[in-house]
Amino acid sequence: MRIAQIAPLAEAVPPKLYGGTERVVSYLTEELVALGHDVTLFASGDSVTAAKLAAMSPQALRLDKSIGDANAPVFLMLERVLRRAHEFDVLHFHLDYMPFSLFTRQPTPHVTTLHGRLDLPEIWGHYELHTDVPLISISDSQRKPMAWANWARTIHHGLPETLFRPTPGVEPSYLAFLGRISPEKRVDRAIEIAGRAGMKVKIAAKVDRADRDYFEAKIEPLLKLPHVEYIGEIGDHQKAEFLSGARALLFPIDWPEPFGLVMIEAMACGTPVIAFNHGSVPEVLEDGKTGFLVRDMDAAVDAVARLPLLSRATIRAEFERRFTARRMAEDHVALYERLVRARMASVEAIAAE
User: Fold this and answer.
1) At a CB cut-off of 8 Å and minimum separation 6, what does 95 contact?
2) Which residues contact 353 (CB under 8 A, 6 or more apart)?
3) Which is deepest, 6, 61, 139, 231, by most CB within 10 Å?
């Protein structure tokens, strides 16, 4: 198939450090190429891919200090994709509702993956108006605020099977927090859980500009506690060792998590996850097998003591069974083919009238 992947421009594909959506777009794109498809990736010019790269900005917008209006390159990209739409069998967008107005007015089948939270009433009007746009959810839980939308399929994220593996010879000795420091991710809970469990916690996390005040007021003072080690943002090449060295990844979220990529990164390393039972978490983790689902702080502290009951080899095997990029790509191809068949059937029906 001739497939266009249209990525956000805020980060490169894959991102240099943090960036969940762009990371997933990269995994999907590379696996589609490996399956033999003709893929074009519309993304920033500093992206790296085996697909054909259509550079829509010189570099990731987050890194370009000269950009005053970050929307301008994105809307220009949409126009450029529209002018090339006839070259593809299917267009796959990762830009939320932005493409709807333009691309419902052209014939090439298109689909949009929604990567973020949907419990924001101000966005609902776009989906109510464009009821013909097929949508991909990244968890069944993500759909709940918009259960009425035109959902085509839920496709869970996946990672390249060899990207992360358990690091041999590493003796797990601490609890880990990985990702982003923000009010909904609750790194403060991770620090408290580790302290109450009598363990060290290592924090490898990014602080966005929007969360800088929160970080300085609420989190930075906690980093001075003797059981806390703040590492900062890390890249993929550091994650396997970081996660393999952890007795568990702490995922003490306080929001309806759409997926939680870090959970399957930990699973790929054979590392169990202790997670608060919100959003997608029960779809990703199997309680008592790949981690523990908890509802409060006391249960989280108790779960630390139960970690020896879990098999790290079993956790890795579950990752291979459920969360590889190959499985993710095959699920997408099946959906693309369905959309193309539906479009062809519609054209034939119109021609027959």
Assistant:
1) 6, 8, 74, 78, 112
2) none
3) 6
For 153-193, the pLDDT digits (tens) are 999 999 999 999 999 988 999 999 999 999 999 999 999 99
Q: Provide the b/e sequence for 104-113 (b: ≥16 CB within 10 Å).
A: eeeebbbbbb
Pick from 101, 107, 136, 105: which is nearest to 24 by CA? Answer: 136
Distance of CA 137 to the CA centre of its chain: 11
pTM: 0.93
Residue 90: CA atoms inside 13 Å, Cβ hemisphere, count? 25
Q: Which residue has the tokens 């590379």?
A: 30
250: β partners:
274
Q: What is the C-alpha end-to-end distance of the chain, expressed in Å?
A: 29
CA dist., res. 196 & res. 302, Å (int): 10
Place of tokens 């333009």: 102
Closest to 253 measured CA to CA, from 120, 124, 117? 117
- pLDDT value, residue 20: 83
Please state, in angstroms and rounded to a whole number, the distance separating the CA atoms of residues 28 and 49: 11
pLDDT at residue 18 in the model: 66
Those residues of the chain that have pLDDT short of 70 are 17-18, 351, 353
Q: Domains in the chain and their CATH numbers?
A: 2-158+324-352 (3.40.50.2000), 174-322 (3.40.50.2000)
Give the Cα separation of 230 and 216 in Å (integer): 14
